[in-house]
Design a protein that fits this description.
Distance between the termini: 42 Å
Number of domains: 2
Radius of gyration: 17 Å
Order of helices and strands: EHEHHHEHEHEEEHHEH
Structural class: alpha/beta
Largest sheet: 5 strands, parallel
Number of strands: 8
Strand content: 5-15%
Bound molecules: adenosine monophosphate
Strand order of the largest sheet: 2-3-1-4-8
Length: 244
Amino acid sequence: MEPAAAPVAVGMNTGELVGPVILLGAPGAGKGTQAIRISEHFGIPQISTGDILRHNITQGTDLGKQAADLMERGELVSDQLVCQMVGDRLAQQDCAHGFILDGFPRTVNQAVWLDKYLAENHFFDTKKGCKQLVVIQLVVEYNKLLRRLTGRRTCHTCGRIYNIYTTQRPLIEGVCDTDGSPLSTRKDDREEVIIERLKNYESQTLPLVKYYAEQGRLREIDGAAELNQITAEAFKAIENGDSV
Ligand code: AMP
């Protein structure tokens, strides 16, 4: 069975030229929440590899079957499978003028693959009209991450993310404020799996900070700051992308 494509997020375009945006950060750093805001503001699609994989699991595709056990244990899916999946998504027309990657790349191999893919597919040529890559790292300390992940609840209808321990809790417990759907906890948000995911982040994804810092592309933002402040700083980093 063919891998299932995740639903495409289309937002209001500011008309501004943006580049591909990468959101780096540990699980629970707030990548998903910020990615939705960036996607809506700049009118670029949000590509969340975790969401696409979960969608494939729900649809019972071959990709979903290969990823399910690894994801449930908090381990990473192979670079080969994930890069193939991202390549298929980036080839779609709505990615030609920018996109936001949430949860990808997660290893240096994936980052090297992405650089090559963007160059070979002429993303930065004038005809494609993309500005240069912007990499935003959301920095949050370990104990806060643990608390955020154990309190995270998601609406599967609209994708909105809540947290029962913070001001982002829903008005009615277990119910989405936006559409009234029930909220659920992700299977991999159990404490023992969370610890495994955070360990994998440190060993496999943190080296990307150095990789992008050496390219001069990294923008660090305090992911524990007030939500709107984080968003404002992210927008500024994206708007100033070419001055990196
Ligand atoms: P996320 O929703 O980003 O927290 O991802 C959930 C899970 O999906 C991860 O713990 C991994 O098992 C898998 N996954 C998501 N993105 C990637 C990636 N870029 N490389 C490998 N595995 C991934």
